[in-house]
Amino acid sequence: MSDINIKITDREGVTHDVVAPTDMSMNLMEIIRSYELAEEGTIGVCGGMAMCASCQVYVINDPGLEPMGDEEDAMLAEAYHVKDNSRLGCQLHMMDAMEGLEVEIAPYP
């Protein structure tokens, strides 16, 4: 089993130190849900299909994220509260290279 340490700032401005497994095929949206860092029904509304942007985060520290795919880019082009450092949590799959990742959960539309 392999875990990484990441920091997630919730929508209230509180930063949480989180341990995330890299061997369970989880994405950042699922980590946020499992730690209950966003109100139920306000994150992962589409189930992680890159179709709603409810799991949008702002990347504060990028230790080596995979490049954004076309679906994620298209969804963010239509989303609210988008910044240059916006990503969809459902598209960020936990892996060892993400050790030290820091994100802030974007406001819910």
TrEMBL record:
Keywords per UniProt: 2Fe-2S, Iron, Iron-sulfur, Metal-binding
Gene3D superfamilies: 3.10.20.30
Keyword Repeat included in the entry's annotation: no
GO terms under biological process: P450-containing electron transport chain
One GO MF term attached to the UniProt entry: electron transfer activity
Database matches in PANTHER family: FERREDOXIN/ADRENODOXIN, TRANSFER PROTEIN, PUTATIVE-RELATED
Protein's name according to its UniProt entry: Ferredoxin
Organism: Chryseobacterium elymi
